[in-house]
Amino acid sequence: MLRLLAVTLLAVSLSACGFHLRSKIALPADLGPVRVVSKTRYSPLAEDLAVGLKAAGATPAAEDATTDVATLDIKSERWGDRAIALDQNGRALEYSLRYATVFEFRRADGSELVPQQVVELSRDYVSQSTNLTGTTSEREILADELRREMAASILRRIDGVVRGVGRPGGARDPATSTAPVDPAPATDDALTPATTTPVTTP
């Protein structure tokens, strides 16, 4: 109960202040209009990324624009639950909620700005066999939190790549460097028609 209350308070505080990063990310000066596309229709992650890019100074692409625009492509979003603790009867007591995303960022001319890569996050939650509603609520709260963290992580990776461009050996400018970005392997993913989320404010 106390754990659920703590998670609830965290989610309320996040929603109250809105989605934002601690510091503004860097974008190329010549990037031009930007759109976010996702395989998931009405993806909350795509919406958060659109908000974050606009806050960073990106110019929103027109809703019907398909050419001459930079594209942040969310190629896949995958969720999974894995039991990490069982009781004496083999019933799951605790789960790990995992969220993995494959993305890439291309300039308007199709050239690669951020190479295709994977970001994976996870959070643990307790399964209460006598209170399924409480368990579901905690999972939903954690899922919302993971989406916000995923958007922030993707934007930080974009920032890390942009700040590394143009310096010898890809070194970052010490005056503008951010925390180190963990590398992630590229992953091939089946392609389906993408939906577009323009860069707009909430």
Provide an overview of this structure.
This protein has 202 residues and is of the alpha/beta class. It has 3 helices and 6 strands. The protein has helices spanning 2-17, 44-55, 132-164; strands spanning 33-38, 59-60, 70-86, 92-106, 112-126, 195-198. Strands 1, 2, 3, 4, 5 and 6 form a 6-stranded mixed sheet that branches. A hairpin with a 5-residue loop joins strand 4 (92-106) and strand 5. The longest helix is centred in the last third of the chain and has 33 residues, at 132-164. It is elongated and about 60 Å long. The protein starts with a helix and ends with a strand. 26% of the residues are buried. The model is unreliable at 1-19 and 166-195 (pLDDT under 50).
Brief description of this entry?
With 202 residues, this protein is of the alpha/beta class. The protein has three helices and six strands; from the N terminus they run αβαββββαβ.
Spell out the key features of this protein:
alpha/beta; 3 helices; 202 residues
Low-confidence stretches are 1-19, 166-195
Mean pLDDT: 75
String of helices and strands: HEHEEEEHE
Report how far the terminal alpha carbons are from each other: 32 Å
Shape: elongated
Beta content comes to 25-35%
Radius of gyration computed on alpha carbons:
19 Å
How would a textbook summarize the main sheet?
6 strands, mixed
Number of helices: 3
Question: How many E strands?
Answer: 6
Helix-residue proportion: 25-40%
Structural class category: alpha/beta
